[in-house]
Design a protein that fits this description.
- The chain is built from twelve helices and no strands.
- It is mainly α.
- The chain has a single domain (8-32, 51-282), classed as Cytochrome Bc1 Complex, Chain D, domain 2, CATH 1.10.760.
- The two termini are 24 Å apart.
Length: 283
């Protein structure tokens, strides 16, 4: 495996708790559209626009989401004369497929933020940008709430030929030889996400995860504050990206919705389900 060496402080030095209670780092994001977000063949530096990404955006969207119903979202999911059907790409239950991400179970604030990013060009995808520009902010919030209230029962499953044991190591421990932090240190101890800004990654489609890592690396995707995911993704070899994508895709997906309020109890933290998954990973 080719290792990409870089001084440890460039990523690890930035890998610290956020002062406003977000968590320890920022987003391995999981939302996309009907077409892929492949990066350019030549690696480009992430734009200065990334440094302007509001780290509280998902939380602010969650506040808006709390005030909307899912009624308007239902017609968007099914499709109408005004917009295409979300379900036509993301599945009847938000389960996604292959390079199209599963939306069910992602945090409402996170989903709404991604839609806004597609609409204003902060995140690039021709199909999703076209669709998102047709939505009002309330409709974005309603879609976030709609998909956040759903769950996926089974994982997508590995399909990239990645080395599962290597993926497990990267998810649980990272690899500080290449300055790569553990995926679970930001996305929860079972990969079920943390709050509104850190989406679940366990059970997601491996092709989608892999493509997003490539997009972060090349700078095609740059809607993460401080370019954190750009720095993490570029530390990983192609084999490592496939390994971690396949490992995460083989894990049980989140089984309960993410609460909208920071003060609300988080049902995925106390039950035995997450603890048992942690113990299984550790074996």
């Amino acid at each position: 495996m080719t290792q990409h060496h870089r001084p440890l402080e460039t990523v690890a030095g930035r890998f610290r708790p956020w002062h406003l209670g977000l968590a320890t780092a920022l987003i391995l994001a999981l939302l996309g559209g009907c077409s892929s977000e492949k990066g350019d063949s030549t690696t480009t530096a992430a734009s200065a626009q990334s440094s302007q990404v509001d780290p509280l955006a998902a939380l602010k969207w969650a506040e808006r989401v709390a005030g909307v119903s899912t009624t308007s979202a239902e017609s968007l999911v099914d499709g109408s004369d005004r917009t295409w059907s979300c379900a036509s790409c993301h599945g009847e239950h938000g389960e996604g497929s292959n390079r199209i991400p599963a939306l069910a179970g992602l945090p409402a604030g996170y989903i709404a933020k991604q839609l806004k990013d597609f609409a204003n060009g902060t995140r690039q995808n021709a199909t999703m940008s076209y669709l998102a520009r047709s939505l009002s902010d309330d409709e974005m919030a309603a879609l976030g709430r709609y998909y956040a209230s759903r769950t996926i029962e089974t994982p997508a499953g590995a399909s990239l030929g990645g080395e599962i044991e290597r993926g497990l190591t990267l998810a649980l421990k990272g690899d500080w030889r290449v300055s790569a932090p553990a995926c679970y240190s930001c996305h929860g101890s079972a990969g079920w996400g943390v709050g509104q800004a850190f989406p679940p990654i366990a059970g997601q489609h491996p092709v989608y995860i892999y493509q997003q890592l490539v997009a972060f690396d090349t700078g095609r995707r740059k809607n993460d504050p401080e370019n954190f995911m750009h720095d993490v993704a570029r530390m990983l070899s192609d084999a490592d990206r496939r390994a971690v994508a396949d490992y995460l895709a083989s894990r049980p997906p989140r089984q309960v919705p993410t609460p909208l309020s920071l003060g609300a109890p988080s049902p995925d933290r106390s039950p035995e389900s997450e603890q048992s998954i942690q113990e299984e990973d550790a074996r």
